[in-house]
Structure formats: structure tokens, C-alpha cells
Automatic annotation (TrEMBL):
Gene3D superfamilies: Phenylacetic acid degradation B. This is 1,2-phenylacetyl-CoA epoxidase subunit PaaB. It comes from the Bacteria.
Length: 119
């Protein structure tokens, strides 16, 4: 196995993921070299859990993680047109609201009319 241009031989590459709380998303923490899954888990616990509180720890052999290829990336570009989700059209909302508030009658002005009919 080759990792970053180096031959690993006996060791395998594992990726370590963790959660700080049970509700938190998994976050990638680091990669490590170990001869098997059991030692990889022990090494991850020793290197990571002693530093931070952890609710969940996942150790996954890198070979088991599938990455999308270039052909599949092309398919993602078709799904990328999500401009309708952006809120660019509301950038001037504060300015428009201020203008609207200036045209609204306040209580003091309404009470000053005293029976006058305004058109």
C-alpha cells in the first residue's frame, strides 16, 4: 500500500472521526498507521480521547472509504444550480423597511388631527 508516496507494508492507514456530544456531527480528526483495526482504535483513544471529551469515536480503514470519481463529479455540477436558495434579493430590506416606517403615521400625528378628514 502506498500513502503519500511512501510504501506502508505491514501498516494500514485508518481515519479517525469523533463527536463531542451525541447530537454533534462526526468530524474528521486525523489519520494514523496501525497493523490492524483493534490497535488503530487503541491508538486513536490514546492520542485523542485524553485531550478532549468525546461522546463517540469512529476508526475506519481508509480503503473502506469510497471517493467519487471525475465522472461522478460532473453529475454533481448539474445539481449545483441552487440560486433560488440564496437570499441576495433581501440585501436592501433594511433600507426599504426604513423608508416604509417613515411613511407610517405615528400615534402623535393621528391624535393631532382631531376630527379632520385627511385625504
Amino acid at each position: 500500500m502506498t500513502v503519500m508516496g511512501k510504501e506502508q507494508g505491514f501498516y494500514q492507514v485508518f481515519e479517525v472521526f469523533s463527536r463531542r456530544t451525541p447530537e454533534a456531527p462526526l468530524q474528521h480528526q486525523f489519520s494514523l498507521l496501525a497493523p490492524n483495526e483493534e490497535l488503530a482504535l487503541v491508538m486513536a483513544q490514546e492520542n485523542f480521547m485524553r485531550r478532549e471529551p468525546v461522546a463517540d469515536l469512529w476508526v475506519v480503514k481508509r480503503d473502506y472509504i469510497r471517493r467519487i470519481n471525475e465522472e461522478e463529479k460532473v453529475a454533481l455540477k448539474r445539481l449545483d444550480n441552487k440560486d433560488y436558495r440564496l437570499t441576495r434579493g433581501y440585501g436592501d430590506l433594511k433600507k426599504r423597511w426604513r423608508k416604509y416606517e417613515q411613511n407610517v403615521f405615528d400615534e402623535k400625528e393621528i391624535l393631532s388631527w382631531k376630527g379632520e378628514i385627511r385625504r
